[in-house]
Automatic annotation (TrEMBL):
May be involved in cell wall biosynthesis. GO terms for molecular function: galactoside 2-alpha-L-fucosyltransferase activity. Keywords: Cell wall biogenesis/degradation, Glycoprotein, Glycosyltransferase, Golgi apparatus, Membrane, Transferase, Transmembrane, Transmembrane helix. The chain holds residues 89 to 567 of 569 of the full protein. This is Fucosyltransferase. It is found in: Golgi apparatus, Golgi stack membrane. Coiled coil: none annotated.
Amino acid sequence: AEESFHSVKVPKDELSGGLIAAGFDEKSCLSRYQSASYRKKVLHRPSSYLISRLRRYEALHKRCGPYTDSYNKTVEQLKSGHRPASSHCNYLVWISFSGLGNRILTLCSAFLYALLTDRVLLVDPGVDMVDLFCEPFPEVSWFLPTDFPLKSQFDSFSQESPHCYGKLLKNSTSNNSKGLMSQSFVYLHLVHDYDDHDKLFFCDEDQTFLHKVPWLIMKTDNYFVPSLFLIPSFEKELGNLFPKKETVFHFLGRYLLHPTNPVWGLITRYYNAYLAKADERVGIQIRVFDTGTGPFQHVLDQILSCTMKENLLPEIDRLLPMTSQSGTHISKAVLITSLGSGYFEKVRDMYWEYPTVTGEIIGVYQPSHEEYQQTEKQMHNQKAWAEMYLLSLTEVLVTSSWSTFGYVAQGLGGLKPWILYKPENRTAPDPPCRQAMSMEPCFHAPPFYDCKAKRGTDTGALVPHVTHCEDMSWGLKLV
Ligand code: GDP
């Protein structure tokens, strides 16, 4: 069966159920074509409307993308500082910001917003985006050219910037709303520390205004898709794109995010060496937000009690360490990802030192232990991306609360993970975990505002498909 990973030929138009366009150079991005053979079951099919909208977006991107006539013209207008009477192409610029898991979620959020508002998404390459992701659109790049006029300002954009949407609103009175109307670009601050004015982005009235701005520059570290579902003017289109609401990130992630060849090498070599031969793969993603260096006994206890209570991994027999191995001989490969190696060593040793009560054979593997979160180091984030992807290739997944790293794995894999509750006061919570309601990521910093009534409201209680998250009571997720 292993051989088939490389020899299976999937008809091109069938790739990911039609998500992927034809017309790419196959060798430049092998993952685009080979990933289908690593993802065994197709559990969800994209709607034909989503597919047709993606093809329409690709045509728009080709017409308006970097260095096209339309792009050059719109950039000239931006340089002159005046808003044109009309522009043929409007843009959304995504600023590279925050950890890799966060960036993957915000890229998908930004793309969906671009799709809903007929904008062209341009991606700030930051330090490592080009090393991590293939081009998702045929022919014309999604990367923002290095000579883009506002590029040197990206780092300094903040809530205090004169072009910040929230700031513009604060400074505008009914008399000088003209100032607001003449902006050639607007900076959208959707970072977790954003204020009530910035949050008005999620109101229809504000969307009507923003619609006329040719350049929107966005900085965010949040998966803001759930709140797009609460904007009335987007409702119908979103329903057509995603009849099954919990598949938004699943499809957008699989459409946009293809590991580059070096990252695909990390993924496939690891998978084929350690995971392919097992009967079942169990992923455990460990992210500890506590201060101090682990491993912590309470976290290990929590992982073991979750996996055993939920029958994800077998118990061990501490009394009869010499039993002849009877029972089933099913083999399970456990893929652990974590910044440290402590938990991995404990679990691996446990299944080496004692037999399982079921006779199952358990192999435990961890690709890397990078010790601490690093930025600006090429291989560090390539490994992080490879590990999120490897977790998405498991059949059973356990994730840590609050971690976007885990959200990416569950969404790409189409998996409803068991989420380890966040420990409080260094004790393992009881119950230790629960299964997620849906495979969608959680929006950690949603607005709680009723745009029509102009007062606070519980945005997790307005419609059945947008509800509070399992791992963060104030967060919002699609179910
Ligand atoms: P979050 O902080 O858990 O929401 O995830 P992010 O991906 O946004 O930021 C955490 C960063 O720390 C990642 O991008 C990695 O650089 C690093 N990191 C965290 N956990 C792991 C892990 O298990 N493996 C590797 N290789 N890197 C990790």
